[in-house]
Design goal:
This protein has helices at about 10-20, 25-45. It is mainly α. The protein has a domain at about 20-40.
Length: about 50
């Protein structure tokens, strides 16, 4: 499914490219990406909704 700010096909392509570049499996690449985004989330205050 794709939209103006999200395209699952593009994300899949990016994950596969990153995994190949890092010489890791796609699952390992996904895990690394999720860990990085979780760290960014906590560093930015871990708020689910932005204040208006």
């Amino acid at each position: 499914m794709c939209g103006p700010h999200f395209c699952s096909m593009r994300i899949t392509e990016d994950v596969r490219k990153f995994a190949a570049e890092q010489k890791v499996s796609e699952d390992q690449a996904l895990q690394a990406g999720l860990e990085q985004k979780a760290k960014e989330f906590v560093e930015k205050g871990a708020e689910v909704y932005a204040k208006a």
